[in-house]
Write a structure and sequence with these properties.
Strands 4, 5, 6, 7, 10, 11, 14, 15, 16, 17, 18 and 19 form a 12-stranded mixed β-sheet that branches. Helix 2 runs antiparallel to helix 3 and helix 7 crosses helix 8. Helix content is 35%, strand content 32%.
């Protein structure tokens, strides 16, 4: 994300000020031993809470004999602190410092924080030296079926094919002026992919990206002279909480973040139970920022998939393999009742630890004007007959 220079400040001055702040934070970071947990601006500098990264678990767990109420209070305090993307006001900063038992550290700067950088830019720079908790980000997990059975050469060819599909899908959306600030990290036999932006629109755009990655992969299978050169994919989409952090690269934090937390754990469990060619959507119910209204709205999996339908209509006319798209239909599968309504099946899958994860089976149908339709995902009748299923809700007849 680009941050404009504050009024009256040249780009050169802004760049110099960034370097000054980054060097000060780098010194406090101490090669990754410390984290910056919070900060507040002052007239000519910042006050920051800096402590070893082990402090997180030490504070959360205490000395081992804390009462449940105290453990919950500490967990809420940490969650609130780590989920904040901006600075704290002086009163809140002092209260958090007292609760954590951390003496604030003064960072002297040769400029006013607001006039020399701007608080949003300072927050972005400081984030590289800390850990954040994000509750509402969507993440995709792609997995290449049978990857471990391939030779190393075949594996690298398949991963390159998947990377090409990711790039091709991104380029298609850019042509429609949908600019996703996406990030990815490899799992060895696939990728986690997420949108660095947050909110309803950002998550919907990520769902669109997933659709076109899968479509490009399907078209690559049609063109391939050797089928093992293109991975057969299974895909999972979920929204949930995770921690965001920046690993060290050399002696510096990376410029891009990594994710670890409940959403990645859930996705890993989901993919273990996904059939080849299947698309699973996790069951979620969370608050997301709605850019249109400026408010946080509670959205569950069913609401979310419904919200993806209208933006898809704007993609009609987009070309795939030389053929214009007439319609993209996406839905969660289920069985039809006597009234002609389609129920949505909620599946219960158990992981190796015995925990139950609730998911939905998704289908995506792309109809092209002068080309054969592209059917992504599995139909309800293609799923294993012993799959544990309950009817979650009803939706109108599908077109």
């Amino acid at each position: 994300m680009a941050y404009p220079a504050p009024a009256g400040l040249s780009e050169t001055q802004l760049r110099d000020n960034i370097i000054v702040l980054d060097q000060a934070l780098y010194a406090l970071w101490h090669l990754g031993d410390n984290l910056i947990f919070a900060w507040t601006p002052e007239a000519s500098g910042l006050r920051a809470l800096v402590a070893p990264h082990q402090m997180l678990t030490e504070f959360a767990l205490g000395d081992g004999d804390l009462a449940p109420d105290e453990l919950q209070r500490r967990a809420r305090l940490l969650d609130g602190l780590l989920s904040s993307q901006a600075h704290l006001d002086p009163q809140a900063f002092d209260a958090v410092a007292a609760a954590l038992g951390i003496a604030p550290c003064a960072i002297a700067l040769p400029f006013s924080p607001e006039r020399g950088l701007g608080l949003p830019l300072i927050a972005a720079i400081a984030a590289r030296y800390g850990v954040r908790l994000v509750e509402d980000r969507a993440v995709i997990l792609f997995d290449a079926v049978g990857f471990s059975l391939l030779t190393p050469l075949q594996q690298v060819v398949q991963l390159n094919s998947l990377s090409c599909s990711v790039n091709a899908a991104y380029a298609k959306l850019l042509d429609q002026e949908i600019n996703i600030n996406f990030a990815r990290t490899t799992t060895g036999d696939g990728f986690y992919i997420w949108n660095r932006m947050r909110g309803v629109e950002a998550n919907v755009e990520l769902y669109q990206l997933m659709q076109f990655i899968l479509a490009d992969n399907a078209l690559a299978h049609e063109r391939a002279t050797r089928p093992e050169s293109v991975p057969r994919l299974r895909a999972c989409f979920h929204v949930g909480s995770h921690y965001e952090f920046y690993q060290s690269e050399g002696l510096n934090p990376t410029s891009f973040s990594y994710l670890v937390g409940q959403v990645t754990i859930e996705l890993a469990r989901m993919i273990d139970n996904a059939q080849p060619g299947q698309i699973l959507v996790g069951k979620f119910n969370t608050l997301m920022r709605d850019e249109a209204s400026g408010e946080d709205v509670r959205i569950d999996s069913l609401d979310f998939v419904e919200r993806t339908r209208a933006p898809l209509r704007s993609l009609n006319g987009l070309k795939l393999a030389g053929s214009e798209v007439d319609e993209i239909a996406c839905y969660l599968t289920g069985r039809r009742d006597d009234a002609g309504l389609w129920g949505i099946s909620e599946y219960h899958v158990a992981d190796k630890h015995g925990f139950i994860h609730r998911v939905y089976n998704a289908k995506i149908n792309i109809h092209r004007r002068n080309g054969a339709p592209i059917y992504l995902g599995l139909r309800e009748e293609d799923l294993p007959p012993d799959a544990r299923r309950t009817v979650a809700d009803a939706q109108p007849p599908r077109g």
